[in-house]
Design a protein that fits this description.
Blueprint: H1 8-18, E1 35-49, E2 52-65, E3 71-73, H2 87-98, H3 104-111, H4 115-133, H5 135-140, H6 143-151, H7 156-168
Antiparallel strand pairs: 1-2, 2-3
Helix pairs in contact: 2-6
Protein backbone atom coordinates (compact mmCIF):
# COMPACT_ATOMS: atom_id res chain seq x y z
CA UNK A 1 0.00 0.00 0.00
CA UNK A 2 2.97 2.30 0.48
CA UNK A 3 3.63 2.06 -3.27
CA UNK A 4 0.43 3.99 -4.01
CA UNK A 5 1.44 7.64 -3.68
CA UNK A 6 -1.83 9.23 -4.76
CA UNK A 7 -5.18 9.37 -3.03
CA UNK A 8 -8.30 7.87 -4.55
CA UNK A 9 -9.59 11.40 -5.09
CA UNK A 10 -6.44 12.35 -7.05
CA UNK A 11 -6.66 9.15 -9.12
CA UNK A 12 -10.36 9.79 -9.80
CA UNK A 13 -9.68 13.36 -10.95
CA UNK A 14 -6.80 12.25 -13.22
CA UNK A 15 -8.99 9.54 -14.75
CA UNK A 16 -11.83 11.96 -15.40
CA UNK A 17 -9.49 14.46 -17.11
CA UNK A 18 -8.57 11.82 -19.68
CA UNK A 19 -12.02 10.17 -19.90
CA UNK A 20 -13.86 10.43 -23.22
CA UNK A 21 -17.53 9.48 -22.98
CA UNK A 22 -18.37 10.04 -26.66
CA UNK A 23 -17.51 6.45 -27.66
CA UNK A 24 -18.76 4.78 -24.47
CA UNK A 25 -20.86 1.61 -24.86
CA UNK A 26 -24.05 1.56 -22.80
CA UNK A 27 -23.76 -1.18 -20.16
CA UNK A 28 -27.52 -1.72 -20.39
CA UNK A 29 -28.22 -2.09 -24.12
CA UNK A 30 -24.69 -2.25 -25.56
CA UNK A 31 -25.14 0.54 -28.13
CA UNK A 32 -21.90 2.38 -28.79
CA UNK A 33 -21.59 6.13 -29.26
CA UNK A 34 -25.12 6.92 -28.03
CA UNK A 35 -24.24 8.18 -24.55
CA UNK A 36 -24.60 11.88 -23.84
CA UNK A 37 -23.76 13.92 -20.77
CA UNK A 38 -26.63 13.89 -18.29
CA UNK A 39 -25.23 16.11 -15.58
CA UNK A 40 -23.22 15.29 -12.49
CA UNK A 41 -23.49 15.02 -8.73
CA UNK A 42 -21.15 15.58 -5.80
CA UNK A 43 -20.17 12.60 -3.69
CA UNK A 44 -18.33 12.48 -0.37
CA UNK A 45 -15.16 10.44 -0.34
CA UNK A 46 -13.07 9.12 2.56
CA UNK A 47 -9.39 8.77 1.81
CA UNK A 48 -6.11 8.17 3.59
CA UNK A 49 -3.13 10.43 3.09
CA UNK A 50 -0.06 11.41 5.10
CA UNK A 51 -0.93 8.92 7.81
CA UNK A 52 -4.48 10.01 8.52
CA UNK A 53 -8.03 9.71 7.26
CA UNK A 54 -9.22 12.70 5.23
CA UNK A 55 -12.54 13.52 3.62
CA UNK A 56 -13.23 15.25 0.35
CA UNK A 57 -15.66 15.36 -2.53
CA UNK A 58 -15.64 14.18 -6.10
CA UNK A 59 -17.85 15.28 -8.98
CA UNK A 60 -19.36 12.19 -10.61
CA UNK A 61 -20.35 12.45 -14.27
CA UNK A 62 -23.65 10.89 -15.35
CA UNK A 63 -24.36 9.73 -18.88
CA UNK A 64 -27.68 8.96 -20.56
CA UNK A 65 -27.99 6.47 -23.39
CA UNK A 66 -30.14 7.98 -26.15
CA UNK A 67 -30.82 4.47 -27.44
CA UNK A 68 -32.43 2.96 -24.33
CA UNK A 69 -32.81 5.93 -21.97
CA UNK A 70 -30.85 4.46 -19.06
CA UNK A 71 -28.51 6.66 -17.07
CA UNK A 72 -25.11 5.65 -15.72
CA UNK A 73 -22.58 7.14 -13.30
CA UNK A 74 -18.96 7.06 -14.45
CA UNK A 75 -16.83 5.63 -11.65
CA UNK A 76 -13.26 4.44 -12.20
CA UNK A 77 -12.18 1.32 -10.33
CA UNK A 78 -10.72 3.16 -7.33
CA UNK A 79 -14.25 4.30 -6.44
CA UNK A 80 -16.52 1.61 -5.01
CA UNK A 81 -20.17 2.07 -6.04
CA UNK A 82 -22.50 3.01 -3.16
CA UNK A 83 -19.59 3.53 -0.74
CA UNK A 84 -18.09 6.66 0.78
CA UNK A 85 -14.79 4.79 1.13
CA UNK A 86 -12.42 4.38 -1.79
CA UNK A 87 -10.81 1.07 -2.73
CA UNK A 88 -7.32 2.02 -1.52
CA UNK A 89 -8.67 3.30 1.80
CA UNK A 90 -10.34 -0.04 2.50
CA UNK A 91 -7.34 -2.05 1.27
CA UNK A 92 -5.05 0.01 3.53
CA UNK A 93 -7.28 -0.70 6.55
CA UNK A 94 -7.42 -4.41 5.72
CA UNK A 95 -3.66 -4.64 5.08
CA UNK A 96 -2.98 -3.28 8.55
CA UNK A 97 -5.67 -5.54 10.03
CA UNK A 98 -4.27 -8.72 8.46
CA UNK A 99 -0.63 -7.92 9.34
CA UNK A 100 -1.74 -7.31 12.56
CA UNK A 101 0.09 -4.10 13.41
CA UNK A 102 -2.45 -2.74 15.90
CA UNK A 103 -5.35 -3.85 18.04
CA UNK A 104 -8.77 -3.65 16.40
CA UNK A 105 -9.68 -0.68 18.61
CA UNK A 106 -6.52 1.25 17.75
CA UNK A 107 -6.92 0.45 14.04
CA UNK A 108 -10.53 1.67 14.01
CA UNK A 109 -9.57 4.84 15.87
CA UNK A 110 -6.67 5.50 13.46
CA UNK A 111 -8.94 5.27 10.40
CA UNK A 112 -12.08 6.75 11.97
CA UNK A 113 -14.27 3.70 11.39
CA UNK A 114 -16.41 1.50 13.65
CA UNK A 115 -15.45 -2.02 14.68
CA UNK A 116 -18.52 -3.38 12.88
CA UNK A 117 -17.41 -1.59 9.67
CA UNK A 118 -13.96 -3.19 9.91
CA UNK A 119 -15.45 -6.66 10.33
CA UNK A 120 -17.93 -6.07 7.51
CA UNK A 121 -15.04 -5.10 5.20
CA UNK A 122 -13.00 -8.10 6.38
CA UNK A 123 -15.83 -10.53 5.68
CA UNK A 124 -16.58 -8.96 2.29
CA UNK A 125 -12.89 -9.03 1.34
CA UNK A 126 -12.53 -12.69 2.32
CA UNK A 127 -15.69 -13.56 0.38
CA UNK A 128 -14.50 -11.72 -2.76
CA UNK A 129 -11.02 -13.21 -2.42
CA UNK A 130 -12.53 -16.70 -2.37
CA UNK A 131 -14.86 -15.86 -5.26
CA UNK A 132 -11.88 -14.66 -7.33
CA UNK A 133 -9.32 -17.33 -6.43
CA UNK A 134 -11.59 -20.29 -5.82
CA UNK A 135 -11.95 -22.10 -2.51
CA UNK A 136 -8.71 -24.13 -2.54
CA UNK A 137 -6.34 -21.41 -3.76
CA UNK A 138 -8.01 -18.87 -1.47
CA UNK A 139 -7.40 -21.15 1.53
CA UNK A 140 -3.70 -21.33 0.59
CA UNK A 141 -3.31 -17.58 -0.02
CA UNK A 142 -2.87 -15.27 2.97
CA UNK A 143 -5.12 -12.21 2.84
CA UNK A 144 -2.10 -9.89 3.12
CA UNK A 145 -0.45 -11.65 0.15
CA UNK A 146 -3.61 -11.18 -1.92
CA UNK A 147 -3.74 -7.46 -1.07
CA UNK A 148 -0.06 -7.11 -1.95
CA UNK A 149 -0.67 -8.85 -5.26
CA UNK A 150 -3.49 -6.42 -6.10
CA UNK A 151 -1.30 -3.42 -5.33
CA UNK A 152 1.53 -4.63 -7.55
CA UNK A 153 -0.59 -5.27 -10.64
CA UNK A 154 0.69 -3.07 -13.44
CA UNK A 155 -2.78 -2.02 -14.60
CA UNK A 156 -5.33 -2.75 -11.90
CA UNK A 157 -8.35 -2.05 -14.14
CA UNK A 158 -7.49 -4.40 -16.98
CA UNK A 159 -5.83 -7.11 -14.92
CA UNK A 160 -8.40 -7.57 -12.22
CA UNK A 161 -11.26 -5.09 -11.78
CA UNK A 162 -13.03 -5.61 -15.11
CA UNK A 163 -12.70 -9.37 -14.84
CA UNK A 164 -14.13 -9.28 -11.30
CA UNK A 165 -17.17 -7.34 -12.58
CA UNK A 166 -17.66 -9.93 -15.30
CA UNK A 167 -17.43 -12.74 -12.76
CA UNK A 168 -19.66 -11.30 -10.06
CA UNK A 169 -21.72 -8.38 -11.49
CA UNK A 170 -20.24 -6.02 -8.88
CA UNK A 171 -17.04 -4.11 -8.26
CA UNK A 172 -14.41 -5.56 -5.95
CA UNK A 173 -15.44 -4.75 -2.37
CA UNK A 174 -18.88 -3.53 -3.48
CA UNK A 175 -21.27 -5.00 -0.92
CA UNK A 176 -24.12 -5.91 -3.26
CA UNK A 177 -24.64 -6.73 -6.90
CA UNK A 178 -25.47 -3.95 -9.34
CA UNK A 179 -29.20 -3.21 -9.34
CA UNK A 180 -29.48 -3.47 -13.13
CA UNK A 181 -29.00 -6.62 -15.16
CA UNK A 182 -26.12 -5.14 -17.13
CA UNK A 183 -24.98 -6.70 -20.38
CA UNK A 184 -21.63 -7.60 -18.89
CA UNK A 185 -19.89 -8.34 -22.17
CA UNK A 186 -19.69 -4.59 -22.73
CA UNK A 187 -17.62 -3.84 -19.61
Amino acid sequence: MIRIKKTSIQLFNEYMLSYSWEDEACPWCGSKGNCVSHGSYMRSMADFTYGKAVYGEICVLRLCCTSCGHTHAILPDVIIPYSVYGLFFILRVLAEYFLPLHTVGKLCSRFGISVSMLYRWRDLFLSHKQEWLGMLVSAETAPSAFIKGLCFLERYSISFACQFVLLSARSFLQSHRNPADYRQEFF
